[in-house]
């Protein structure tokens, strides 16, 4: 099992002009460590980070879009895997942080903590699928994750993170959305 914070700290310095769509617990960490104009935070619509990511990937094919999703969140919208498989955006990376819980809602366990999201992604038509279980493996695969043609689905096996309070109001600031618009229009 990996530590999500450590993985995000590994990812952050490698990003240049990619759009990052982050949701719930991952977003809470991401905003603290990598506050960038090209971050899009998805809250209040559990399960829709991947759908937002598809929209951005289709609208901006010249930019790579990295979705930082959660396993509980993805369970709320499994149909997105079929949509990703069908429209096959070449610039989309869907990373699902799997800790077996609805972490943002108090850490309640998923109904099946052994769910194989990679198998679901393949069944939905996504051919490029990976499961990463160690930080060393993540470091080794990161260059390919950031450059291979998508869609790419990555199941990240992590330990449960902190269940503390989230600063959702900070992530929803109008200034953040404006910075994203400006960065996309630049």
Structure explained in plain terms:
It contains nine helices and eight strands. By secondary structure, it is an alpha/beta fold. It has one domain (4-185): Thiamin diphosphate (ThDP)-binding fold, Pyr/PP domains (Rossmann fold, 3-Layer(aba) Sandwich), CATH 3.40.50.970. Strands 2-1-3-4-8-7 form a six-stranded parallel β-sheet, sandwiched between helices. Strand 5 and strand 6 (108-109) form a beta hairpin.
Q: Which whole number gives the mean pLDDT?
A: 90
- CATH top level is Alpha Beta
Order of strands, main sheet, comes to 2-1-3-4-8-7
> Residue share in helices?
40-55%
Q: Per CATH, which architecture?
A: 3-Layer(aba) Sandwich
Number of helices: 9
Note the main sheet.
6 strands, parallel
Strand content: 15-25%
CATH topology, which one? Rossmann fold
Low-confidence stretches: none
Number of domains: 1
Q: Write down the Rg.
A: 15 Å
Class inferred from helices and paired strands: alpha/beta
Overall strand count: 8
CATH H-level homologous superfamily name: Thiamin diphosphate (ThDP)-binding fold, Pyr/PP domains
Q: Report the span from N to C terminus.
A: 39 Å
One letter per element, helices H and strands E, the order comes to: HEHEHEHHEEEHEHEHH
Shape: globular
Keywords:
two-stranded antiparallel sheet; 20% strand; Rossmann fold; 6-stranded parallel sheet; globular; alpha/beta; 186 residues; single chain
